[in-house]
Amino acid sequence: MRETIHIYHTNDLHSHFEHWPRIRDFLKLRKQHHENEGETVYLFDIGDHVDRWHPLSEATLGKGNVDLLNEAGYDAVTIGNNEGITLDYDDLNSLYDEARFDVIVGNLLDSSSERPGWADTHRIYHTHSGMKIGVIGLTAYFKPFYKALGWNITSPMEELEKLVHSLQGSVDMIILLSHLGIRDDEMIGERLPGIDVVLGAHTHHVLPEGKDVNGTMLGAAGKYGHYVGHMMIEVDTATKQVTGKKARLYGQGELPPVKDEEKEKVEWIRKGEELLQQEVTQLTQSFPVDWFQASPLPNLLCDALVDWCGADCGFLNSGLLIDGLHEGVVTKQDLHRILPHPINPCLIRMKGAELKEIIKQTRNEDWPHLEVKGLGFRGKVMGRFEYSNIHFKDKDILIGNRPIEPGKIYKLALPDMFTFGHFFPDLQRLEKKYFMPEFLRDVLEWKFKSK
Fold first, then answer.
1. Residue pLDDT, tens place only, 117-150
2. How many Cβ atoms sit within 10 Å of the Cβ of residue 2?
3. Fold of the CATH domain 2-271
4. How far is 154 from 387, CA to CA, in rounded Å?
5. Quick check: 389 and 314 in contact, CB under 8 A?
6. Residues in CB range of 179: below 8 A, 6 or more apart
7. Which CATH number fits domain 278-450: 3.40.50.300, 3.90.780.10, 2.30.30.40, 3.30.70.1140?
8. Residue 427 and residue 367: Cα distance in Å, rounded?
9. What is the DSSP letter of 23?
10. Of 167, 237, 243, 302, which has the highest C-beta tally within 10 A?
11. Euclidean distance between CA atoms 80 and 11, whole angstroms
């Protein structure tokens, strides 16, 4: 006798709720259909459902996302880096208090190096025919960030090997919820043949019909709710053996329209903005922003960044500021609107010779118009660089009123997006101090309040 196990999966929604009404109703409909047919069905999310760029996610610190997952009827989720390192310790610890689904993450320990009470390393599910499915969850190994927040994250590969070894013999099938990225998923398929299915995320890859790697089927559904994944696993119930695997994606354009979906999406934004209507300050003057010319607000934010980090100097790109601020009352919603990025302040100590080279690179004339994607950036273009306590005189670069001394150690403040090697490869090897959980909007709020 044969059984088909249906798994629907989403990943990297990043709080892009524009497709969520259709995704939710589609998943509820499909789950009910399979249950009516006597078939086994599971709904899994593979992390980064939360992203604090959306007002509702910001105002509820992700708990609004948990409500949406509850409503859709998910069975289990793992966490992505957006859940893991854009919330402070207590907020992540309480994020899933009201969850009606399992949270599976096998490589995260709390401040006492114990498993957090809200997470399981794995879960075992039983199908209608009695098949036992072991489900493991793992998240990306962003050790410096988790450490700065008080968490202890462990190597996902080491944990995976231990978990697979412990499950083999006690389950009939192993599924991995992997917020690790396509390269790690492929490596897992090659090195750990005991895993039947890897549902992937993090690198926003799209696998329309899945990908077979040494007998392990990989599935992934892109980002922002553009797709819903569907994995169909055929099993022989007599021998408890997997006999076939198929994967497909449903594009959001294929999903049936939902009554009042536009109204629903607007309501989520309105609710978030309403919750963020908390006064921060009252401005006696406007602070405009220009991405390509010198303007007041980027200068103020750059000075605030240096003060916050206790640095000698600093720089940032003006494209971080989506808009300026008008004279009058400024609320948390205003700051969130103009600085929606999950980007933290960072401090790096370096020799003057290294600092000089980094500053020279920021003067690249092509950079202001560069379109930036990822690295926490939620804007459009890089914009011109603004500097604090960095001056240019003829061919010299000055810190304060003195030329940079090649052998002297300087403290540079900058947004963390510049420390990952994409723009400034030399910064990757230097020791860094990340200020967490504060974002740049928190630094700007602190500056206004301190004034």
1. 999 999 999 999 999 999 999 999 999 999 999 9
2. 11
3. Purple Acid Phosphatase; chain A, domain 2 (3.60.21)
4. 37
5. yes
6. 11, 46, 47, 48, 78, 79, 80, 81, 137, 138, 139, 140, 201, 202
7. 3.90.780.10
8. 18
9. H
10. 302
11. 9
